[in-house]
Amino acid sequence: MCGVSDATPYDALLLLSFGGPEGPDDVMPFLENVTRGRGIPRERLEEVAEHYLHFGGKSPINDQNKELLAQLRRELDERGLAGLPLLWGNRNWEPYVTDVLREAHERGARRVLTVFTSAYSSYSSCRQYREDLARAAQALAEEGRELHLDKVRHYFNHPAFTGVNAAAVVAALEELTPEQRAGARVVFVTHSVPTAMDEVSGPPAAGGGAYVRQHLDVARSVAERVGRRTGTVPDWDLAYCSRSGPPSQPWLEPDVNDHLRELHAQGVPAVVVAPIGFVSDHMEVKFDLDTEARETAEEIGLPFARAATVGADRTFVAGLVDLVEERAARARGEGPDQPATGALGPSHEVCPVGCCRNLRAELPAATGEDYQAPAPV
Fold first, then answer.
1. Are 183 and 206 part of one and the same domain?
2. Which range marks the domain in which residue 237 is found?
3. Helix 159-173 × helix 210-230 angle, to 10°
4. Which of 93, 235, 280, 375 has the fewest CB neighbours in a 10 Å radius?
């Protein structure tokens, strides 16, 4: 924590998330929103739609965000920040971020701090959110509204995030028998992205590759924390799920299902699948891991346990509010502590020029060094 709780100069806090359908009729319009301009074949959208329809057409992410909001409100109130408005906006479904920020402006907000429900650097997990914020700011400026937007730093290596993930891996290991646990492999999983996207992730000066580098750093930190709790650092790997591009386009591998088969062939006695790339149990976790990967493990006879995501865990939520206080202190010109696990150190909160470049188009992206906020018309 940063000492006395103070969110100045911010007058609202925005939780910005991905969004998800609320029923079967929403599924295809939602997927069209998500993939607009990416050339994803209709057949692939229909395939992914079946994932949602398998769960009644409703994404679990919305209810999970509501629970996260409730826990954030509790933590803010307990720290004396009851007067700080807490907002929730989405990129791809209601409540849309532009509408939420418009309403916040009408209620008096002029400088808003944003927390993304994504912990890592890449176009799809950071810059695309920043582009949506810039688009919202432009729309408000055209209505004569001025709004300053900032974000907290990436929290992939914040002690609260890695610590809660480590506790989840320990709990999942306990689901295995002692014999299985002794040789279990931890398979850390995140969302696959095109290799070209990874190659431009992070600041250009760092040479790209931040998305994979950050996940490997988190996996190593979590495994070491597991070792401190159990006495043994587990063997581990990083695998990927949820590929959606055409077969001709290289994406990060290995796919988690292929990797489980390979581990079984090697004689690994059991696995713990740990979705460190995800903040909550949304569709990629519920279908790609809890359904498909579990079915793969059952098919080949590989004992399988799935670690929980951080979700609305109280330690994780406290860490997010620590980051809010930290960012506010830095905005006031102070020098708060910036705790980080692993080898990479604390990330930036103002993104360098060209960070996580958009390979399809050059679009304005808020909270960056090169961003010029639009003047109200």
1. yes
2. 159-306
3. 60
4. 375
